[in-house]
Amino acid sequence: MEQKITIRIADKDFVLKATGPENEELIRLAAIEINKKLAAYQAAFPGKALQDILSFVALNEAILALTAQRNLEAATAEAAGLGKSLEDYLSSLK
For the residues of the chain, what is the DSSP string, one character each? Predict the structure, then answer.
């Protein structure tokens, strides 16, 4: 069930559709995190244009997402390797 929600980023309201309560929570949490980072960059770089600050926030978020993706891929590969090692060990016990 889609529900319209309103979030605020950089003092601008956006109306979005949330596909459920979990999705709504994620959207709201994401908006909160973006606004926190926006405030931190604005404090660190006073006088910078909002567009520049938003670009820094977007870059930071993209770096975090790519790092998480790489970590997940490495963990998945490691888990697969451990599973194979376990299978080999259990086969050797027969």
Answer: --EEEEEEETTEEEEEEESSHHHHHHHHHHHHHHHHHHHHHHHHSTT--HHHHHHHHHHHHHHHHHHHHHHHHHHHHHHHHHHHHHHHHHHHT-
